[in-house]
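hiii so um. not sure if this is the right channel but i have a protein structure encoded as tokens and i wanna go backwards to a sequence. like what aa goes where. can anyone help
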């Protein structure tokens, strides 16, 4: 597992996690799954459990996505290091 704390958010890339490339952002009481797209953008993961709990604060979700966008390269590097193939 690789992780980093940025602006009060803990971002985690799990070693045995699946494609597409993504990180889990933990802020306040909310977990947000953020896709790290190949075009250099971030987006909320396209899955029903992208925000946990499902009634998580919209402002917390926006904050996680904004911080992820501002630190895209760092987060993509964490994902890539966790998923390197020998």
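sure thing!! here u go:
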């Amino acid at each position: 597992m690789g992780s980093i704390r940025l602006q009060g958010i803990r971002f985690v890339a799990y070693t045995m996690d699946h494609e597409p490339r993504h990180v889990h952002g933990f802020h306040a009481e909310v977990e947000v799954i953020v896709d790290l797209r190949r075009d250099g953008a971030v987006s909320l993961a396209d899955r029903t459990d992208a925000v946990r709990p499902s009634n998580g604060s919209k402002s917390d979700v926006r904050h996680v996505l904004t911080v992820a966008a501002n630190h895209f390269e760092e987060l993509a590097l964490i994902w890539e290091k966790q998923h390197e193939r020998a």
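oh and The mean pLDDT is 94.
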